[in-house]
Amino acid sequence: MATTSHHHSADHGGATIQTPPPPLPNFLHSVKLKYVKLGYHYLMSHFLILSLLPLITITTVHLSRLTLDDVENLYIHLQYNLITLTALSGLIALASAAYLMSRPRTIFLVDYSCYRAPDHLTVQFDRFMARSKQYGEFNQSALDFQRKILERSGLGEETYLPAALHKIPPAPSMAAARQEAEDVMFGALENLFKVTRISGKDVGILVVNCSLFNPTPSLCSMIVNKYKLRGNVKTFNLGGMGCSAGVVAIDLAKDMLQVHRNCYAVVVSMENITQNWYFGNRKSMLIPNCLFRVGGAAILLSNKPGDKRRAKYKLLHTVRTHCGSDDTAYNCVYQQQDETGKVGVSLSKDLMAIAGGALKANITTLGPLVLPISEQLLFFVTLIMRKITDSKTKPYIPDFKLAFDHFCIHAGGRAVIDELEKNLQLSEEHVEPSRMTLYRFGNTSSSSIWYELAYTEAKGRVKKGNRVWQIAFGSGFKCNSAVWEAVRAVKPSESNPWADCIHKFPIEISV
């Protein structure tokens, strides 16, 4: 056997200098952990199939060795046990029928529409501040605070405020609030009915959520009257549930669709700003003025099997977490009067900590439903190690990027998006829909997650089989999640709110 060696030599004045061969790369440092995790994830995801391979192989070998005599003997054996065979077949058929009748109905998201206000309602920062100053009730400290919040908020210059707040002085009234509600609800519904080619008479279930504006007759009744919905329509009006109420409404519609067969459900998610603008000087109550903007969404759900061909998504899971039993959580988003009697919504300094705790509780429930077995095992082993080593082991944060392809994080504010990006170890692209929605439309409350999904569709990113995680936070305090799976490659609808501006995004947001 011959061996070879490599030597590098150079002749310097007759003397030959040999240099050592280059060292081998340090494989310990060159192998990236993420690829190890992906391999582990693939192994655990296909563990059952891999375990069955030896059994399948053995069975195949035995079947290949069967002779005609063996098959004939098996047939004779079954003839002598005809009663047992018949009973067993009947039992299997009965069990199959019971399973098919009791399994949950598939809920399809046929389509949805997001409201886009007319351009004359846009509010630039300078215009916002000029109107606030002209109002005359804000002191200089309150004006400076609002400007600082605006500049750091992540909002852009093209968000919308209702018509009543563009007037000098502002003219909030019940009539103006009704007009805002009608503009948002009917604007979204008109587009939805046009795209899906259904009418009000086809709707069997109607759920409307609006936290701070609940007139009589209700918002549901306004829709029933406008579109002449049938007399036996099931209507639900959800109030006071904050920015996470959109997922609550989806969850309620899902439960109703499990009961009523061959039915359409319409969900309308919105907030009303006209009568809920704060005109005082308490800083904790001025923050919503700077963040909340006009917006709303209408969603069509169906349990009709025939709608699978035209649907965009099917609903996989909804998980709701309520932390209202804790006093600090209950009070962190609170509508009240200030010392001068002016009404507004106060945001506590504990809000981010409360949101973090609610998120932890929510994903603890959601994780086992969506995470691959590899992530669940890692989390479980780490949990056991922390118990044994008295919490000295670093807690393992499950990689939700293995469970979801797209993330729709409620655009409540820049701090909310930043915290979830950090805690869930998401990339810039994962939080891009949330940041751009906050920039373009502001915090539209419960409907923001639909503007984010519309952004993802407008970018052409949703492929068949992709999973979408919608997650929202709201007063109470609540954290709610909805998980959807695309049943086809999703193209943006004609009424997509990003249709004429998606080419401008993403943009760099300077804070």
Short description:
The chain contains 17 helices and 13 strands. The chain has 511 residues and is α+β, with helices and mostly antiparallel strands. α16 crosses α17.
Layout of strands and helices, then pairs:
Blueprint: E1 8-12, E2 15-19, H1 27-30, H2 33-45, H3 47-64, H4 68-80, H5 82-102, E3 108-114, H6 125-135, H7 140-152, H8 174-196, E4 203-209, H9 219-227, E5 234-238, H10 245-259, E6 264-270, H11 283-291, E7 296-302, E8 313-322, H12 327-331, E9 333-337, E10 343-347, H13 351-370, H14 373-388, E11 406-409, H15 414-423, H16 428-441, H17 448-458, E12 467-474, E13 478-486
Q: Any descriptors?
A:
511 residues, alpha+beta, two-stranded antiparallel sheet, disordered N terminus
